[in-house]
Amino acid sequence: MTTTHQSSTKQDILEYLLKHSQATAFELAEVLDISPQAIRRHLKDLEAEELILYSTMVQAGMGRPQHVYQLSSRGRDRLYRQDSDRLGDSYGNFAVSLLDTLAETVGKDQVKTILQKQWERKAQEYRDRLGNGSLKERVANLVEFRKAEGFMAEYHAVEPDDSKKSDRFLFIEHKCAISNVAESFPSVCGHELEMFAAVLPDCTVERTHWIINGEHRCGYLVQARE
């Protein structure tokens, strides 16, 4: 196996753990389609780099205990730093610095108004590009737009509840391309929720997960109005 292939597999492991919070070696071997022996070698290397950690899960019956792996804080930082490198640390730092300067110059309320206008503009851009397809098609397209902007985005269909028959989807972002801005100006996340609601005006959009609250992803439940 080449070094490049090894690096790619380790990256796949880290990204899977970011998306799914935790996994066993057997699960990773099945998902990545490599042998359990190979996956354990990669896990041992990642553990040595302190990018992952594990706990022991005791199985019922006669099954052997298994290690359950998850990202360490260093592993999570590694993935976020990779996004920052691709998008440019200087860009993110400049954005935060610019917003700080604006807040000092014109006041925080005016900055909130500026951010609101920015998200309204972005929402209109997304709506123009999404078209008038089915809800599933529009959510899928929105995922692709966000991926192109540096977000690790995906979506899943959600079963309708007993009282409603409308389509429902969980829109997820595992990594935030504007996390450094969001840390300094949390209101941008509120605007993001407003933006998604404006992009999909025939739907209700509800926040289900939030990275700022310590969760490992941001999530939104999108449901077509009846």
From TrEMBL:
Pfam families from the UniProt entry: HTH_24 (PF13412)
Top-level division of the source organism's lineage: Bacteria
Database matches in Gene3D superfamilies: Winged helix-like DNA-binding domain superfamily/Winged helix DNA-binding domain (1.10.10.10)
Transmembrane segments: none
CDD domains found in the cross-reference section: HTH_ARSR
Protein name in the entry: Iron-sulfur cluster biosynthesis transcriptional regulator SufR
Organism encoding this protein: Calothrix parietina FACHB-288
